[in-house]
Design brief:
By secondary structure, this protein is an alpha+beta fold. The protein has 2 domains: 84 residues, Winged helix-like DNA-binding domain superfamily/Winged helix DNA-binding domain (Arc Repressor Mutant, subunit A, Orthogonal Bundle); 66 residues, Dna Ligase, domain 1 (2-Layer Sandwich). 43% of the residues lie in helices and 13% in strands. It is built from 5 helices and 5 strands; from the N terminus they run H-H-H-H-E-E-E-E-E-H. The strands form 2 sheets. Strands 4-3-5 form a 3-stranded mixed beta sheet, with no helix packed on it. A two-stranded antiparallel ribbon has the order 1-2. The mean pLDDT is 88.
């Protein structure tokens, strides 16, 4: 994968640095990670890496279209290497788990009521709800509560 990242960076006229390559490997291995998680993982590989270097690289790679920044309302930005396929995300309100979900149909799968003359080519959607584990935890908690009231 390292060679693919090197070629991708070269194609975007971005320099090949150890931090940048490590960051890409981390984001690929841990999609939907925030900057602090990425920093911690890169720092384990490259002890001289700084948080500022991580933010600078996240911005450069996002601007170049190599990674995607996801900005869920009320949460920090998350990053992934899956780009240019118009997929969406589903996020658990309980534990914060995030999963990819495919767009139904061709991009953009949603159309605005009035595009104001824009040539719309993408829709960014975040679905919110409770993951199966949080749903089960709520059922279990409710059952435990009801059992304790019966005693």
């Amino acid at each position: 994968m390292k060679n693919a990242y090197e070629a991708l960076l070269k194609s975007k006229n971005l320099s090949l640095t150890a931090v940048r390559l490590s960051l890409l490997e981390v984001v690929q291995a841990h999609p939907h990670s925030d900057a602090n998680v990425i920093y911690t993982a890169v720092k384990q590989r490259i002890p001289t890496a700084t948080i500022q270097a991580i933010y600078n690289n996240l911005n450069a790679l996002t601007h170049a279209g190599i990674i995607r920044e996801i900005k869920p309302k009320g949460h920090v930005s998350l990053y992934e290497t899956r780009v240019n396929d118009n997929h969406h995300h589903v996020i658990c309100r309980g534990c914060g788990k995030i999963e990819d979900t495919h767009c139904m149909g061709c991009a953009p799968c949603l159309a605005p009521a009035d595009n104001h003359g824009f040539a719309v080519d993408e829709a960014e959607v975040v679905f919110w709800g409770k993951c199966p584990q949080c749903q089960q935890d709520k059922i279990n908690h409710k059952e435990e509560y009801n059992d304790s009231k019966r005693r």
